[in-house]
């Protein structure tokens, strides 16, 4: 047993209102730069829908994640080392700008500076890539609130694998919101796909980052990631991805998306896992057993043997304490209501989701019944095959039983706590029917509904003194000569120069690295020379006319945008 720590996020989808505050604040913090106009490290999708980039879940087309070969061994779906070397200068298995969307702004200056005329001036949409006039035809959430669903819903890859008919009429179908970030997987296919060894998984907290100095822009990582959460910066020629806001995590602060979430639906905490069992779990033959296999890799931080092994492997006591208080561990293990996104990709994703009960409650209520009565909800959950089967297609590789168990627990919590809040004697049979006690239901309700800030975010601070002893992980399978591009066959200088080969240990990046973001070429929009477009300005530099003379505000420095270089302090 080799104990390692992993920062984990859990999202309660019942509380997401689709406001996109998380997406906007993430973009302002990380991708408000030239070359990343189309990039959203955090995005919120309406389900059913095509997602962003559209149909990214169709791995028959995009070839992301892992699969088992004829001998039952894990291999990258897009091909291993030799296939990648043969096609390294031409990789057709990537989304293009049509699959994402062409980003745009508006000619706002026209509204202010247009001369008097018969017609009201219009702020026309302008492409952020070419500066030309454009017609908006797609975006990062074109399916928002099922808009246009009658024309696109049939292309949803999850719906295509369902046996039930789904009503496409707006008033008859179901919907919910799905926020997405990088999964920071235990067995990341993006890391294993990188020919230059630029992508790595930090040993101390499991965050997956891109070394901007070593990245050569091969873009194999874009293909390898089945969630399509690795992006190519067409300005720098480098790959970029969600960093889990590592400068904030290292000082005990939650990610920007968590901090600004209106619905308070995100939970951050440390979990411990057995790194020696990652490969075995990812190679589980039956896809529907992968969820249970992934959960079995996680270790109980209260187990004395696990605590002793964690100390032996160099995990500090305050990190062990944080793992014991982790809200992510409680939701995944104690209450068993959190599920991973697409475990069938075999990457062992570490962003988990509590599936929404709302579609079931809405239908029960619209039928004239009590939407919070436990007995009615229990019956409705098992009969409403469409939402249940769809949720199973997202979280349990099509197995509806774990999803039904979770929804029954959430329904029991609603029914039990309604009696408590109305001053009635709660029905203990409601809790026991889902394998819980009344006290456990109350504790789960507190965590899901009214938990305070320090209960939702239990984040241990980084230990700079142990950074030199940490060995950076490439892919979890590479240590045994696995199929990843950074494995034993790529040691030394390699055919691509010093960037290929075994990763160099990295020190703990400091909090102020966030200030060293790349400076945009120009703060001006495409059609407003001489003026500052505050919507596109990245906050760096000193544009003329923005600050009073002599004011030192606004100075910025150039630097790495997606993970500090290895060896930085």
CATH class of the domain at 356-451 equals Mainly Alpha
Q: Which CATH architecture of the domain at 356-451 would you pick?
A: Orthogonal Bundle
Assembly annotation:
single chain
Q: Percent helix among the residues?
A: 25-40%
- Total number of helices: 22
Ranges with pLDDT <50 over ≥5 residues?
A: 478-483, 485-529, 553-561, 563-569
Give the termini separation: 30 Å
**Alpha-beta classification:** alpha+beta
What is the CATH third-level topology name of the domain at 356-451?
A: nitrate reductase domain fold
> What overall form do the CA principal axes indicate?
globular
Question: Taking Cα atoms only, what radius of gyration do you get, to the nearest Å?
Answer: 24 Å
Average of the residue pLDDT scores: 82
Q: What is the makeup of the main sheet?
A: 6 strands, mixed
CATH-defined superfamily of the domain at 356-451: nitrate reductase domain like
Q: How large is the share of residues in beta strands?
A: 5-15%
- DSSP, total strands: 16
